[in-house]
Design a protein that fits this description.
Structural class: alpha+beta
Shape: elongated
Radius of gyration: 25 Å
Bound molecules: zinc ion
Number of strands: 8
Number of helices: 5
Largest sheet: 3 strands, mixed
Helix content: 25-40%
Amino acid sequence: MTIDDSLHLQATDALSSYWQMACEFFPRLHKYSAPQLGFHLRGTAAGMAYLNEHRIALNLVLLKENTVAVLNDVVGHEVAHLCAYYVYGSRIKPHGAEWKHVMGLFGLPARARHSFDVSNTQRRKVWRHAYACNCTGKVFWLGAQRHSRIAKGHVYKCLKCHTSLHSMNQKTNEALPQRSIRSA
Ligand SMILES: [Zn+2]
Ligand SMILES: [Zn+2]
């Protein structure tokens, strides 16, 4: 997934205005330029502040789906982590009184967690298709690639009974171990 120029610019703007605000509240921050901004955060977190690296990362999926909220709340939330770190040191709690104080200065609610819908941030489910040979009770769970090769006429055989695998017309997206098969 890539970020287009206009969204990139909006995010950079949001970050610099929070950083500017931070510098006004805490003049000692003037010696730092605005933090680096990245968009490669995976999983369900909306943002992350890397305290020692002067860097913030956003989750691009959530940024695209909740642009206004991420630019206001999440960017502010992460900048507040950097501020609290620079002003109060590294021994404070991540969402403790110092961070809450900075959030208050930013005019943001001091919520530790977001409530965005995260269903599109999860890893895509992998489907496996059930195949059988002549061995009793044996099931081969084949991935999409082998499944489509079979549909195109490719033959896979059981290593034990040497018969061709045939579809059982069942599929699952549960994680399953794969059995060894021989391509023929
Ligand atoms: Zn946080
Ligand atoms: Zn077999």
